[in-house]
Amino acid sequence: MNTAYQIVVCGSIVPDPLQTLEPVTGPAGPALKNEMMLPAVLDPWASHALYEAANFAKHSAGSKVWLVSLGPKAKLQQVMMTVAQKVPFELIALDGPASGFTDAAEVAALLTEAIQSIPGLDKAKLLVFGGWESASRGAGATMQIVGERLGILDQFQGVDELKLNPDGSLEILERIEGGKHQVSRCVSPPALLGWATGNLPEPKNNPQVGMVNMRTAMPALQKAKPVKLAGESLTFKSVSLPKQLRETKIVKDKSADDIAREIVEWIRK
Amino acid sequence: MPTATDMTPTPTLQTLPGDDIRQIMWRFADRYDLAMMVQACRAVARGPVARAVASGERNTHEWTPQKDALLKAFDEAGITSAFMEPSEGGYIEGPKNLALSLLAFELSWVDAGAATASLAGNLGLSPIHERGTPEQQTYYMSRAVPPKPGENRKAWRYAFALTEPLPFVGVETGMLGGKVRVAEWKDGGEPTLQVDKRGRFITNMGYANVVTAAVDSDDPRIKGSCMVILEETDPGTFDRGTPTKKMVHQLSSTCDPVFNLRVPASRIIGGYTVKGGCIVPNYSHGEIIEAVFRRTRVTVALMSSAKLLSAIEPVIRYQRTRFRGGEGGPGSPRYELGLQQKEDSQHRLIDVWATGEASTSLGFESARLFDQVDPLEKAKDQWLAEKKLSGRAALKELMKKQQEALELVRLSSQPADKRNSSRIDDLAADPMVKFSLLDSLANVFCPACKLWNTGHGATMMREAVSLMGGYGITEDCPGFLGQKWMDAQLEATYEGPEAVQRLQLSITMTNELFLAQFEQWIADMRRIAAQRPGTGACTLATAMRLWLWTLNHVQTATDADGAKLYHKTRQGVTFALADALCWLIAARQFILDVLELAEKGQANPALTDGLLSFVNFFTDLCHVQSARAGGEVGRICAELVHGYNRHPAWDEASCQACYCAEELESLEGIIPGIDSAARACADVTEASGSRSQKAGPCVSYAGLETFIRLRAKLDGCLTGARLAKDRAAEALTKVMIPEALDYPV
Ligand SMILES: Cc1cc2nc3c(=O)[nH]c(=O)nc-3n(C[C@H](O)[C@H](O)[C@H](O)COP(=O)(O)OP(=O)(O)OC[C@H]3O[C@@H](n4cnc5c(N)ncnc54)[C@H](O)[C@@H]3O)c2cc1C
Which one of A13, A37, A87, A213 would you mutate to disrupt binding with B, by most B Cβ within 10 Å of its Cβ? Predict the structure, then answer.
């Protein structure tokens, strides 16, 4: 029974969700206002995938985790200052746009190429992870296309749990309607898992883990291949933010029940 | 006439500066160890620390489990071990002044008390770190490192006990009440010491396992003073005392402890020798605390700086949203700009921001200076040891190096074609010359940043609070601005209050090597001004010249009674000039950091879109700050230069210089217009003997012509400063800020 996995996580950056996100039309189509200047974070869905990957690898001796990231190199580097402290992985960086307005198919092609270039890649050990969607684009298509291009037939989306059975098969919980999970059994790798939130808390920062990761992440960033996305097959009819209303009130001495009641009343208004 | 800078359309500030910008300005863009440490520390500051403040943990003097949990969070995030060498369990190679300053900055962004709790541990260890024997260093440093997974031990916590109950140590650190005696000394064995020490306001005392304490000899068999290491398990009394009822930094623990302990003499920090049956500590307590405070004061300075910069976002948000929900819907100025419609609200926030920038620039430059000085200082100690020099002989040798350093500065400021390059190269390659140069700067920068960042910082923090109106002084104020204001008073007080810093500056700023470099900076500022007129570098250069003139003047000038002006007892002169200098070097460092951003920022592709807007905005802030510095320096210098002369009275002696109205009248026939001309520029005694209604004849500027000219020039150099302020203020109304603060309220 083989328990040493090669886990490749695909994930890139999105603007920090606390920032003001305002769509604008730039020379190259739609974009977010000041996007390059806003602080970025690792896409939350991909983050869950990365933490789950690291956790799975920790419990399966001999396993290794890669993070394949397509994004502007300088911004990726900044995000690595946090992400690299969380869990051990090796970075493969592609220097290109990471905005929510790129073509999922083009992105998937580049990610696939990067995965295929991993030395010693063994499909019999390969688990490809990613987010089931992205915080900057909820199309949910990128990982599926990566899977197809890699010829991985066992694909799971909206995954919340991955367990290794004693016989070496994988047990996977996928989100379905009604707050329920569908339980699947996958006999062996290769498999592709698009993660929902998983079950793990965000690991704490640990600069000592970071120092180890950065020894390989810095060179990876330095030699990140510049890639261009043509974006030719893609047009946007209109772009808008979901309507949101923010009303802040500071309460300190109310019970959770009272607060919940107030929120419900507010929603009903 | 508008200048070029006034007319160029400037891209206005688009977002608040992020990490990319800060890493370049504060010069750690190539240090990923530090960048990661910053992120780890930020997560703790804006997570558990902010939650502790928001949930009211500051409202008790006791050391609570919630406060204690923060220490664990520090340990887990690598904040505690950042001080240690990799060989001791740390992860940062080399000097750590910048690293610790960044930690202080990040924690204080939310709560400086949290920074104190963490840094006081380092302060407790610092006497050992700076002057301990190798054995003491290995033993105590490694025990401060938090246990790694699987290790079954607890990290030791440290405290530093210098301050004593009245009437002993406070500002004056020489009056030690703590005593050390020989308790037992068997032939050929190691002596056992009896240490009696009471502390006042000792940080970390609620839980420290080890205390480094300053004590004086109370025994003819021990020479002078020293610092000793006390452990909680030593035989005797280790009484932590009651918690101090402080109103500041409540996330740190402060008590008045009492120690009566027996310890082996090997606990004397830095070791001792036995001479003629007498224990001679290798370092006095004064020598150790000088080495310690030189470094740790910089981190304190950065606490206040962080708070000023942390205030910008919450104040902008408050101002903009002040009237939303009332009259005027989206799109109306009232809705969109709120209080930012008012010029005063904008201008005052610009003042807070400019001060925050300048003080942060000064603080981090000081930290970087010490990172450079640290290895050179070790090399210097080794060099002197190899030459077997100590005391006066060592000082003499160092003075020689100082003279060589002076020569280097003078040679380097000559025109390129007249320079003796080979001599310059030789001198520049000498590490002891380099040490002299940097040490003379560090001796000024450390007290300057501790004094100005915290003292003036506290004043500006009050400005920030006032911009929030009544909300500013409630616990619910976003960004905890009220607490930060009050806390600033502690930052200005502990580790040597402002008086101590002024005292130190009044000595170090007159060092000729420092002044030679200062002279060079004036020329540098003019050069910078030629390339970037909008920075206010020219204003600053004139203000620097005025300060230097005044310093030279007061060195020899006397007051109206013939008493010397520049004298250690005359703090009215020396301290005031020290204050003025701080304004200058802070504004200068801000300009240098903006230049660095303008140059190095181009290499970062993530900044392609925004670099120019940041550089333009910061350039305007520099101008604002330089003008403010010029104003302060002008005021202080004028008070000193004129203020110690007695004003002429309407007496015989002074009136000799006055014209007589009758004389003028008779001359009017020969020289038409003399009457009115004379009245315009001098005093006139009327025929009736009456004189103008004023204190006396106006003063004569004889001998002060250069000062008068410089002062007038400085006023003229303020030209454009308010235009810069208007531009910066306008940018404040346009900058995009996040939807919400990234830490709880
Ligand atoms: C919360 C807190 C934590 C602290 N933590 C520690 C710690 O961990 N370890 C430790 O050892 N100490 C600690 N201290 C003590 C702190 O360092 C002292 O309070 C400080 O050095 C000032 O001493 P003092 O209070 O005795 O003031 P004083 O010496 O009484 O001075 C009061 C004022 O008098 C004036 N003054 C005094 N001397 C002069 C002079 N020569 N020239 C001009 N003016 C002068 C100044 O205005 C000065 O501010 C802490 C204090 C506080 C409040």
Answer: A37
